[in-house]
């Protein structure tokens, strides 16, 4: 089965530009505005990749639309046709809805492989939530980022306020983000795919372990993370990938690695 087989859906096009690398392009005209159907489809893509055990080692997320990444959400309005409930029941329903929304947009964070966002044009509202849950973010020249939720009367609640303080508080990273690059949409996607190719050439055990440990470090103290790292590597160091890497380096050839898990057979 080809890596990208059967993954494209109504508003997301998925291709395999190189071995073990997927490219997911958001394409809901005219402005990639997210409806419930769209964000449900988005989260399901990542969860499906994990559930089916496809040998994905890196994924690039971008927009297929030439002028922007996404204009945010287009269905915030309440459904007046819905059967009325009292305030408590309405609050519980909203709470469940928000958790489902957060779970879908946070799907890249749960993947064992890195997800690289390559953005251009406008990145509005939910777009910030989306790229915040990715592992790496590349932006083309002139990309504009805006957290718009406060302008429509609410606090951002799908990930931005949780992720941003953790992923932007790094001086060297900020220096890197301010380094001028003559990138348009084509160039930023090419750069992201180049990084994805490099990641895909490494041991899946090492890459997935690095992602898990970094995510744990983001949310825990140094001492807690050191303990977690020791527990993780107590098992991971037994991988055959280390032997394969050393053997390939000695022979001056590219190493090959087994998938993280066997794919789930089709019923």
From TrEMBL:
Q: In which pathway does it act?
A: Lipid metabolism; fatty acid beta-oxidation
Origin superkingdom? Eukaryota
In the UniProt record, does the keyword Lipid metabolism occur?
A: yes
Q: What is this protein called?
A: Delta2-dienoyl-CoA-isomerase
Keywords for this protein = Fatty acid metabolism, Isomerase, Lipid metabolism
What Gene Ontology cellular-component terms does the record carry?
Answer: mitochondrion
Q: Which GO biological process categories is it annotated with?
A: fatty acid metabolic process
State the family it belongs to: Belongs to the enoyl-CoA hydratase/isomerase family.
Under the heading InterPro entries, the entry gives: ClpP/crotonase-like_dom_sf, Ech1-like, Enoyl-CoA_hydra/iso, Enoyl-CoA_hydra_C
Molecular function (GO) terms for this protein are:
delta(3,5)-delta(2,4)-dienoyl-CoA isomerase activity
């Amino acid at each position: 089965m080809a890596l990208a087989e059967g993954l494209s859906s109504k508003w997301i096009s998925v291709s395999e530009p190189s071995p073990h690398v997927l490219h997911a392009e958001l394409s809901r005209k005219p402005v990639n505005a997210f409806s419930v159907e769209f964000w449900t489809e988005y989260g399901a893509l990542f969860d499906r990749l994990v559930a089916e055990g496809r040998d994905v080692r890196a994924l690039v997320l971008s927009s297929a639309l030439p002028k922007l990444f996404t204009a945010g959400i287009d269905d915030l309005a309440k459904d007046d046709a819905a059967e009325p409930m009292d305030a408590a029941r309405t609050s519980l329903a909203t709470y469940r809805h928000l958790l489902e929304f957060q779970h879908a947009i946070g799907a890249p964070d749960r993947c064992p492989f890195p997800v690289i966002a390559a953005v251009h044009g406008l990145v509005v509202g939910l777009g910030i939530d989306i790229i915040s849950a990715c592992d790496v973010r590349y932006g083309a020249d002139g990309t504009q980022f805006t957290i718009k939720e406060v302008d429509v009367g609410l606090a951002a609640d799908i990930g931005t306020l949780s992720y941003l303080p953790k992923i932007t508080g790094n001086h060297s990273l900020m220096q890197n983000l301010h380094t001028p690059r003559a990138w348009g949409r084509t160039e930023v996607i090419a750069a992201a795919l180049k990084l994805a190719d490099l990641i895909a050439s490494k041991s899946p055990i090492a890459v997935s372990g690095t992602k898990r440990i970094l995510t744990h470090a983001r949310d825990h103290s140094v001492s807690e993370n050191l303990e977690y790292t020791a527990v993780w590597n107590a098992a991971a160091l037994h991988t055959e990938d280390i032997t394969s890497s050393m053997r390939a380096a000695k022979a001056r050839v590219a190493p090959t690695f087994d998938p993280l898990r066997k794919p789930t057979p089709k019923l």
